[in-house]
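To close the chapter, one final illustration. This time we ask the reader to focus less on the individual chains and more on the assembly as a whole: which components sit near each other, and how the overall shape emerges from the parts.
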Amino acid sequence: MNFVRLFAVSYCSVLGCVFATRHLDQLRYLKLISPIEKPSRMFGLWKVPRLSSIQFNLVGFGFLAALVLVVCGSYARMASLVAVALYFLYFAQIRTLGYISRKSNLIPQFLFVLAMVPATGRALNVISPMWPILLLKILLIQIYASAAYSKLANSGFKWGGASHMAKTLVVRHMTYDIPLAFRVAKYPWICALLGSIVLIHQITFPIVLFATRLEPAYVIVAFLFHLSSIFLMRVNYLIYQGPAYLIFAVIPFGQHFLTSAVR
Amino acid sequence: VIEAAVLTVLVVLPTWIATIRQTNEWPFGSYPMFSKSFHKKRLTVYRIAYEDKSGRLIWWKPHYYKLSSIFGGEVKRCLKMPAPDRDEALDKVFGSIEHCLIDDPSAVNALSVCVVMRQSRQDGNGNWQLLNATIVRRPITKTVDAPR
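The assembled structure is written out below.
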């Protein structure tokens, strides 16, 4: 079974659907922000040119078409590489948009890996190496590990205490009017519970690379974490990072439902 | 093996360099959100509001909600500057706020833009109290040709 191909198809399908449904909102943001803000720098170094609305539409269409080509399997690796280039051109224009800033970082990383791996362009019934799947899992998990590192470096284990979480929730309420966050901040035991779960989850997430049986539990906690972030903090990672979680589903799904079908 | 190792170094290492240096080299970056300790007793944010015809102060809640905190943060940065630079920087930020506010259908009655310093403190019973103080107020100068 070619799990890399299976992941490429499922990831690019879901990402393409998400992107297509968001494009108009992103275009509106571009029109609003383009007179007052420059595009982001690629790798923090290289300027990305400002696009007009028409160019933005064309680049968006190109990005979507590249994802479709990956799904169809025609020049899949080349299409994936083109999608990486178009990602930088498109997303640099609107990087301050709430659900894009940092949340779309995995897209070029995943597409680049898929472009570099020969199995992406091969048929589903070919046996693929497992290291690309492991590498993609590492890319996703390192986001949580990186967040844990920042928390420990800046605040230590105190981050998981009630006080820090309560203050964070109050600040979010003061900034965005989130009454639920303000209410939760009044209960120290809930804040301590939330803070410690988040910290333990982020620190220990890399364990799943060695203990794959723990994957479902960690993925469920990650989803609950992102859901609570949406309702308590107005931080939405699920839109553009959500499709990356398919990496944890691709092997069990392929083994249970597709192995006999593709022989 | 070599292919896997090279690819791993190419995509994994930059994120860790950015994480340790706490920088953001898009698309590789650290994730430091909400990680810093709160040292002051009072929590402070700068928030954008507008006044309507009746003089009521209304929080600006744009569709692209992050704009409000982006501009609030920029105003905070400007207020720390020395006087001549500060005025020029504030003019630029208020120009940007106005540009976005005029585009917002929910702020159709806005006559002036206000920056409100929002503070919170915890009383002895653990309850949070919110205090608001308008620190900058500017009338909206731009006119709109198309119906808002």
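Chain B is about 35% helix and 25% strand. Confidence is low (pLDDT under 50) at residues 144-148 of chain B. With these observations in hand, you are ready for the problems at the end of the chapter.
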